[in-house]
Write a structure and sequence with these properties.
mainly alpha; 434 Repressor (Amino-terminal Domain); about 0% strand
Amino acid sequence: MTTGAELGVDLDELRLLGGLSYRELAKRTGCARSTLHDALTGRRFPKLDTVLAIARACGGDMMSWRRRWVAACRHQARTVPTMSRQSTRPS
């Protein structure tokens, strides 16, 4: 099962294998370096568009990365606790 953090680590490995700096990756993807850094370090769960832009810029397989993103979304949905209705009501 792929988590968001694992997805980020693997995307960063793809970037490194492609020999790209964050600056070069930002130029190729049109994404801000801060967005890329957050996605590649697992700090924030990346949007699908960001994952696909990184994969495209690094020569990755787009369908494979799309499937991994979907799997990570499903994993995150199962592990993120939700607030109950009761906890959102004022006291």
